[in-house]
Amino acid sequence: MKQHIDVHQHLGPCNVFDLEVTKTDLAAAIDGTSLEGCIVQPFPGAADALLQHDAIADLARTAPFKIWGIASINPHIPNDAYRSEIRRCVQDLGFVGVKLHSIGHAVHPGSRDGHKVFETAQELGIPVMVHTGDGVPFADPTAVLAPAREFPDVSIVLAHAGMSTFAGNAISVARVCPNVYLEPSWCKTPEIGAMIETLGADRVMFGADLPYNVKPETEKFQALGLSQRDLEAVLWGTASNVFRLQ
Questions:
Q1: Which of 84, 98, 161, 168 could form a disulfide with 184 if both were Cys (CB 3.0 to 4.6 A apart)?
Q2: How far apart are alpha carbons 196 and 240 in whole angstroms?
Q3: What is the CATH number of domain 5-243?
Q4: Count of Cβ atoms closer than 10 Å to residue 93 Cβ
């Protein structure tokens, strides 16, 4: 296996979900696994998302493993402030995408402030990761259908791919929108298999969401009996292409 990339990890504290992930936690998740590195974002409940963006950039410079950043800041802040911070993350810090956390930031993907996220991503040429699953109606994968069609040149990654309950909705949206990709953390193994069978391995990518979830999520993919080509695609190839990882 050439690489193994986790496209969905966090760093720092979260006041929304009462969680915290430290640099030590991330290092422990990578140690002893086939992970080459992680794409890391702040939690939606970060007390200061800008400071967490800086912490992620610092980790990317100093860690003995590969780290790429995804910007995540509440899109309900003033437009200029939002666009300025996402631009700083991409152009100055080298981040590879932006997160729309539908439930954590209480933003519907099809709303005015949700639209701002996709518009900013289009301007900067980066993918958007959208939280789906828990938090309906904001987090229903079908909420992404309209912006996916309005912004066909923006790659959109459905984080959790509906989180099992709405896995079928995630598959349906991806079937009609070729710019939509699925990251199925917390989904069941047969659901992940259905995603790969329906969409192809080039539309599905590995993510764990939390450090302790890396091994269980990896085992789901390994249990599917995929060809070597498809296994490599879901574990690193799709992510590398969508996020243009170096």
A1: 161
A2: 17
A3: 3.20.20.140
A4: 16
